[in-house]
Amino acid sequence: MSAAPDAVHAQTRWEGHAKGSRGYRRLIAALAFAGVATFAQLYSPQALLPGIASELGIDPARAALTVSLATIGLAVAVLPWSFVADRIGRIGAMRAGIIAATVLGLLGPLAPTFELLLVLRFLEGAALGSVPAIAIAYLSEEVSRTHAALAAGTYIAGTTVGGLAGRLAAGPLADLLGWRPAVMAVSVLGAAAAVAFIVLAPQARGFSPAPRPEGGVRAAAAAAVHKLGAQLRSFRLLALYGQAFLLMGSFVAVYNYLGFRLEAAPFRLPASLASLLFLAYLSGTFSSGFAARLSVRYGRRAVMVAGTIAMAAGAVGLVSDSLAAVLVALVVFTAGFFAAHGIASGWTGALAASGRAQAASLYNLGYYGGSSLLGWAGGLVLSWWGWNALVLGVAAIALTTAAASWLAHGAEARARRS
Questions:
Q1: Is the dihedral of CA 217, 98, 122, 231 positive or negative?
Q2: What are the structural domain ranges in the chain?
Q3: Cβ(320)–Cβ(281) under 8 Å?
Q4: What is the CA radius of gyration of the chain?
Q5: How far apart are CA 353 and CA 29, in angstroms?
Q6: Where does the chain cross the membrane (predicted)?
Q7: What torsion, rounded to 10 degrees, do the Cα atoms 405, 145, 203, 132 define?
Q8: Helix (H, G, I), strand (E, B), or coil: what is residue 92?
Q9: 51: which residues sit within 8 A by CB, 6+ positions away?
C-alpha cells in the first residue's frame, strides 16, 4: 500500500516556490505590497521637511527628526521582531506589525504638538520594523535557493516603489492642503497596501517554530545571545552591516535635504515640483533587480562594489547648479545605492549558516541606524558648511565603503577563480 499523500508530503523536504509558480508570484506580490505599506509611511515626511520646518519654525535637522525618529524606532525593533517571528511565524509577525503601524500612521497627523508627533513616529517605525526584519528570512525559507537572490532583488525593487509612492503623493498634496493632510493620505495608502499583503501572502511551508528553551527567561536570553554571537563573529557579515550603516545613512542624508536645496536659489522649485525628483527612485527599482542578475555572472562582490562607486559618482554630480545635471546625478546615485543594497541584503541571508532572521535584523539595525544618525547629522553639515560639503562627504564615504567591501569579500572572488 502506498503512503498517504500527506505522509509523503511531510517526509519531503520543502524546496521552496520556483520562479513562475503561483506561490512565487503571490509571495513576491505580497511582499511588494508590504514594502509599499512600510516605506510609503516611513519616508513620506521626507518630501515635506521644508514645509514642516517653515510652519513650525524649526531648523532642517530638527524637522528631519520626523524621519529619523521613525527609523530609530525601526532600528531598535528589528531584533525583537526577529525573535517574535521565530516563535509565531514570519507572516503572523509581519501582519501584526503592519496593522499596528497603519493605526499609528493614521494618528500621527492628528498630533497636536510636534513632540507627540515624534513619539507616534517612533512607535510607528517600531511597528514597521516587522517587515524588513523578517522579509528576507521569509524569502529564504519559501523560495527555491536557485531563485532566492532574484527574489530578494525583486523585493528590494518593490520597496523602492513604496518609498517613491509616499514621497510623490505627499509633495503635491502638501502644496494644496498642508503637510498634515498629505501625511494622512499616505497613511490611507499604507492601509490599503496592508490589506493586500494580508490577502496575498501564501501560507509558510518552510518555517519551523523555534523550540521554547528550557530554563525560562535566562535560558532564552542565553540562546538569543548565542544566535547573535554567531553573526557577529563573521568578518564578512560585519562588513555588510557596516556598509548598510554608512551607505543608507548617506543616502537618506541626501534625500532628506534635497528639498531644501531645490527650494532655494538657483532652483526655487515649489514642493510639488521638487517632489518629482523622487522619481529617480525608479532607477533603484530597476538597478536592484538588474544587479541581482549580474551577480550570477560576475559575482556579488564585483557588482556590489560597482554599485557603490556609481553612488559616489552620482553624489559628486549633485554639486551642479543645472537642474538637468542634478536629475541625472540623482538617478545614478540612487541606482548605485539600490544595486549595492540589493546585493548586500540578500548576501546576508546566504552567509548566515544559522539564525537567518537575526542576521537580517542586524543588517537592518545597521541600515536604519545609519538612516537615523547620519540622516539627521547631514542637516548639521548642511547648516554649517552647505550642500556641496554634504554631498562630497557622502561621495567620500561611498568610496571608502567600496574599498572596504572589495577587501572584505575577497574570498568569493578567489572561489570563483578556482
A1: positive
A2: 17-210+221-417
A3: no
A4: 21
A5: 27
A6: 23-43, 63-84, 96-112, 118-139, 148-170, 182-202, 237-258, 270-290, 302-320, 326-353, 365-384, 390-408
A7: 0
A8: helix
A9: 174, 178, 179, 271
Q: How far apart are CA 226 and CA 133, in angstroms?
A: 18
The position carrying cell 501572502 is 201
Give the other-Cβ count within 10 Å of 323's Cβ. Answer: 14
pLDDT in tens, 44-80: 888 888 888 888 888 889 999 999 999 899 888 888 8
For the domain covering 17-210+221-417, report its CATH number. Answer: 1.20.1250.20
DSSP reduced 3-state for 270? coil
20: helix, coil or strand? coil
Q: Prior bond to 266 cis, omega within 30? A: yes
User: Amino acid letter at 43?
Assistant: Y
Give 7-49 pLDDT, tens digit per residue.
Answer: 344 335 677 777 778 888 888 888 888 888 888 888 888 888 8
Concatenate the DSSP letters of all residues of 58-74 into one string: --HHHHTHHHHHHHHHH
65: its cell numbers: 527628526
Q: How far is CA 418 from CA 201, 270, 411, 413, 415, in A?
A: 41, 56, 11, 9, 5
